[in-house]
Design goal:
Oligomer: single chain
Largest sheet: 2 strands, antiparallel
Shape: globular
Order of helices and strands: EHHHEHHH
Radius of gyration: 14 Å
Number of strands: 2
Number of domains: 1
């Protein structure tokens, strides 16, 4: 079975939101086992377990158990979803 991954742009957006709520970027990266280099290209793929670790670290460091919900409310996440074709409001049937 292939490894499950997410776009690096999603992880980068999550870091931006967590940092805006007080988490240190270095701490988030260290806890998730990620490097800045892995996140430079938004289309790079990040293993899902590292993304989950990043989310858990963000929730803990921000003291916000609803961080995922707050991230989903941001223009950062909606922009990433639209670029990746995940937002069904932007999906179009071929003509």
């Amino acid at each position: 079975m292939p490894e499950l991954t997410v776009a690096a742009g999603l992880a980068r957006g999550l870091i931006e939101v967590a940092a805006s709520k007080g988490a240190r970027e270095e701490s988030l990266l260290a806890r998730a086992g990620l490097s800045r280099a892995e996140l430079e290209d938004q289309d790079n793929r990040i293993p899902l377990p590292k993304y989950v670790a990043l989310m858990r670290a963000g929730k803990e460091l921000c003291n916000d158990p609803a961080l995922a919900l707050h991230y989903g409310e941001t223009p950062i996440s909606r922009g990433t979803q639209a670029r990746r074709g995940l937002d069904d409001r932007h999906a179009r049937e071929p003509e």
